[in-house]
Write a structure and sequence with these properties.
Elements lengths: L2 H11 L3 H12 L6 H14 L6 H14 L5 H7 L3
Helix pairs in contact: 2-3, 3-4
Length: 83
Amino acid sequence: MNDSFFRKIESKTGVPMEEVFALANAIQFADFSDERQVRKIVKKVGKMANKDVPPHLEDELVRSILQSGSSFNMNDIQKMLGN
């Protein structure tokens, strides 16, 4: 893909492509049975979505992801955040 494509995405979302790639990489190689990794991903998605994730919601998301294991993905987190 070319740079202009990424610049358009950055301008529409306000999220640098480096952050998107870093999150995608983290999700791809994440151990969804590791609570610390899952919490980091939930926080990153919330930050990128510009959503405040209160502690009780973070706990609920983490618990749900840990139960679902590797079948969980970023779209599931976004749905839980109301995007």
